[in-house]
Structures are given as C-alpha cells and as structure tokens.
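Attaching the record inline, Q. Sequence:
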Amino acid sequence: MTENRKIEKLFTKEHRTVTQIRGPLIFVERVSNVAFDEMVEVVDPSGNIRVGRVLEVDNDVAIIQLFLSTDGLDISKTKVRFSGDVVRLNVSHSMMGRILNGLGEPIDGGPAIIPEKREDINGMPLNPAVRIEPSEFIQTGISAIDGLNSLARGQKLPIFSGSGLPGNELAAQIASQARVIGENKEKDDPFAVVFAAIGITHRESSFFIEHFRSSGSLDRTVVFLNHADDPTIERIITPRAALTAAEYLAYEHGLQVLVILTDITNYCEALRELSVAREELPARRGYPGYMYSDLASLYERAGRIDGHQGSVTQLILLSMPDDDITHPIPDLTGYITEGQIVLNRTLHQKGIIPPINVLPSLSRLMNAAIGKGHTREDHRTVADQIYAFYAEGRDLEKLVTIIGEGSLTEHDSKVLNFSKRFENEYIGQGLENRSIQETLDLSWELLSEMPDSYLKRIPEEYIQKYKKRK
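Structure, as predicted:
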C-alpha cells in the first residue's frame, strides 16, 4: 500500500487541454514544468488509465507517446497527468525465472515483483575511464563462432539473419550453452540470461520459452515479451527495460548477464512508425536520421565496469530485409557493435546448421579473448590458416563451374576438398555443443589433410606439436 500511495502522489499535475491525437501520439497544450521522457498517465472517458511518456516539449506544448493504443480516446474528455519523474522499472533478483510483458509487468501468473529498486529505463552513461576492455573468452559451443569469431565477456555482437534462416534457433542455443572459460580453469557458472522479444510472433516466443524450459535455463532467465500484435510503441520500451534489468543483475548482484535482443529490425520499424507520426523528415529508406544514435543508446549499454564483478554481454539478432547487408539497420548496427555473425541462405539450403558464413563474419575483440591463458596458444594462427583456405576454396568452387575439377592443380584440389569438409564438419555441427578444445582439435584434424608446406600461416612449432600425422 505504501508503494502504491507513493506512485499515486507522482501524478499531481493534471491537464484537460488535449488538442490532437495522431496515431500513438497525444498533443497537450498550456503545460509548464514538463520535462522530456517524463512519465504520464492518460485517463480516458471511462476512467481507464493508459501509461505513456513525454516525447517532446515545444514551448507550452507537450507531445506524449502512449505505450498502448489511443483507440477510444476523446479529445474533449481525456485527462493527462504528469508525474515529474522518468519511466522506471521495478527491478529485483526475484525477476529471474519470470516472464514479463514488454513493459516489465508479470504475465506468467506469478506474484507481482517486489522491487529492490526502481531504475530509470534509459540507464546511466558509462564513464569511459571506468570501462574495462572485454578480454575473457566466452565459449558458445558453436565452432564457427568460438574458433573463428570468438566472443568476449562484455562484448556486443549482432547476428545478421534473414527471413526463414534459423537466427532464433542459434540465439537460443547460445543462451543455453554460453560460459566464460579459460585455458587452465574449470568452467564458470553459466550466464544469467535476459531475453527481450521485440515484435515477434507467438510461435517464436513459444519456441524460446520451451527451449529455455527444456534446457533447464529458464530459472536463470528473465523474459520480456512484446508480440507482433502488441502495441507497436511498446517495442521502444522493451529493449530498454530488458537492459535495465540486465544492468541491475550485473552491477548490483555481480552476475554475468547475456542479453539477447530479437528482433532489432522490428524495433527500427517501430522507430520509423513513430517518426512518421511526428511528421519528421525521413533519412535513408524512410528511417529517422537519429536511428544511429538511438541504436547506440541500446548497444553501448554492454560492457564491464571497474570494481564490479558482473558484466553485460549483448547478442543482437536482426533480420536483414531482402538479405541486404547494406540495409540501414545492419549497416548502422555493424558500425556501432564489435563485429557481426552473418547467416547465409546458400549454406542453409545445403542443410548446413548453423549456416554461418565465416567470411563476412567478424569479431573485433577476438584477439583480446583468445590465445595463451584464454583458449590455447595456437588459436589465432589456426583460425587465420583455416580462414585463408576456406576463402580460397570458395573462389575455386566458382572456377570449377567454368573449367571443371579436372583442370585443377593438386594444391587446388586439396584446398577445394578442405573447403567442403570445413562446411560439412566444422560449420555444420547441428545442435552439438563443442568445447573450444574440441573445436581446435577438429581444426587440426581438417588441416592434417594438407602438407606442412601449405600451412604458411602457422609457426613450425605449432605444426609439430598439434598436427595429427596421417
């Protein structure tokens, strides 16, 4: 009761000066002492309350963005109450194992979350001076990631998927398998997972929840669900609420938190819809010009802080419209984040699961997370050699369609065979959970088909130590 009275006291400034309702936006005139991002209650003629926030203040006019539909609102009878505070989320360690809606309200039939704190969903900017560079290897169990595009604790790494590609399945697999691990120590506890579903279908959300349950990871997962048939504007809040919960669990409770945001393309579509309602001038392909800074305000909430044991690692799933990697959403995401994992439709059609195309994939923090003391001393050079052979093999595949395999040299034939085995055995691991040692051992098994003279990127000492002789 005390908490409810505190919340009720927030909403003291009431206005009946609504002049326009446009889509999810409400325009209120003759307001004073109203701030950007302030929390708002809108009371409809029936007395029902809808929550929103101040999107813009221009002189004495406030533009309010509702998190629910504006259907049924009457301009002359609608009341608006301003709270004087920003939108906050009730956070607690008891959120673990709970399923919440996009605004952070329980929808699993369980009790209300008793807050330990009420946190601003926009978070606080991290001082660069106290940021710690991500440098600890995260074992995802996926060879194409662990071996060639390694993920570091505190990194933000997107998965570029497409319509019909198994991006959701890959994200769910990583969520249940991911662990921080070093060369000379046992596996740490698995990550706490904060999963934010942004505009996905009920079938997709059912898949994720069932996967979390069957893998035994639901008890260490906080699920935020915004479905495709939920209000579009709620999608603006969902990732911010999820990241707020992640930051609290990481920096207040010292947990290693893996945040999965899917699908960020739906978030950008909501951002564009809101921009159109505000009659803003569009930029590339109709998206608002501030989409870069808006996405950065989400992605930059990953990292590690000096003096805190916990960390926030982001795995961002987005669907590339028409498989176009130059589309504004993947293009801007690639600039902000520290690499990308790219799924390939051709590999998927070959039945290779997961269909990760390692050539355009990249992890900019890989060097800091691998090598002696993290994974193994030969990791970097082995990854470089495999990448070089595979890139050459892909070029040879195109050449074979023109001149045929009979015209290839002995070197070319060996590289082409390596490329085929690499796709089928290394990338195409299915649902297998491989340790980094198993991945590196498999790398040397594939390289054992090649003469030592071909292994130009690997020092002789590693060849003698690790190569499996036939």
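The two ends are 75 Å apart (CA to CA). The longest helix spans residues 379-403.

More tomorrow.
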